[in-house]
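re: that chain from earlier
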Amino acid sequence: MSARPLVILAACVGLLSPLAAQTVLPYQDFSVRTGLQLNDAVVSGSSILLASSHNDRRGSIFTSSQYGVAQFSAVFQFRIASPGGISDGTSAGADGLTFTLQRVASTQLGQLGAGIGYGGINNSIAVEFDTFANNYDPNSNHIGLNTGGSMSSVVTADIAQAFDNGTIWTVWVDYNGSTLEVRASQDGQRPATAQLAKSIDIAATIGGSAAYVGFTAATGQAYGNHEVLGFGFSETFLTNGLAVPEPSTYALMGLGLAVVGWSVWRRRR
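^ sequence. v structure.
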């Protein structure tokens, strides 16, 4: 093989290496759902609709295989729109969405309503984005960290802007092996400071260092459209967080694979 293909291949491998080393699950959207298990959730365009604007709906999506969670970085986008139904005294709409790690099965689906599709899932932790004030909640719009399928959060953080305001929220969840940090924004920019941070031994909490990774949501007497729009996950903790997977990621992957295949063909000739 001549020197020129080697240079091209090296350049492509160099460009691909951050993706290969960091992003295990790069779903820029859900037009392709390989490796995912949908449970009462439906495809809506290129997003996943976990629970629709009707009473008593729920849904979940989990990876088909378990991934390492001894440390990790995750990024995802969600949208909760069209809130309605009863009010909690502040506004109508419920109940929220969770990012969940659990070791039971990819088919897990928790309780309706206040359970946010997570309640009752054992060997798990969840970051909840709660939009309804139940009697154990601090208010009607907060982030919470829940464990063992319980809806009573270990720690919460108030968020001023409503999660069910119909805008796209981008969330970063990062775990360095001892502290879990959660950041959320409406402008796609990662906040410098985490809105929620908690020291936790995830492996001890869920009973192992690998888990099914995914999302849950539910409605009850109040409701809203709960969608997940995109998702990235790394089994490595990244100090500055994981970038939202972009379409260019896939073009780059395809280019790299094409060059590798071409170089192998040339060598065999």
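The CA atoms of residues 110 and 117 lie 4 Å apart.
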